[in-house]
Amino acid sequence: MAREDRYKLVAENRRARHEYLILETLEAGIVLMGSEVKSLRAGHASIVESHAAEKGGEIYLFNATIQQYASAAIFRHEPKRPRKLLLKKREIKRLIGSMTRKGMTVVPLNICFNEKGCAKVSLGLAKGKKLADKRQAEKERDWKREKERLLRYK
What we know:
Layout: H1 3-6, E1 8-12, H2 15-19, E2 20-30, H3 34-41, E3 45-46, E4 51-55, E5 58-62, E6 65-66, E7 83-86, H4 89-100, E8 104-113, E9 119-128, H5 131-153
Antiparallel strand pairs: 1-8, 2-7, 2-9, 3-6, 4-5, 5-7, 8-9
């Protein structure tokens, strides 16, 4: 079964793969309020400017925007509040150890609902790309595109 069949993609951070070199990915649960889940199911979320960091021995998702659900009268949430990520202790320790190294960060790649209906966030352990690295990646992508075009017309 393909990933698209099992997972419903809600938000994607397409800039992350351009700005960072993703070394490793892992999937984490996310603690949400009821109105946030409703808003996510409606697709009102953005993780473009967000990042994950350590706070009190736990990993939190900062600066992720989940818009307020219109029909939630009393139980409204703050759109950019920090949200706790659900990871195993071993994974938390490994991520905190990796983040303390120079240039390493944890960026969210996407938010989706799995087959059970639980919201999951894909995290990427990443290292920031320099301008030369970005240019090299663009050259390789352009060459790959041109090569495919040449092979298709022959």
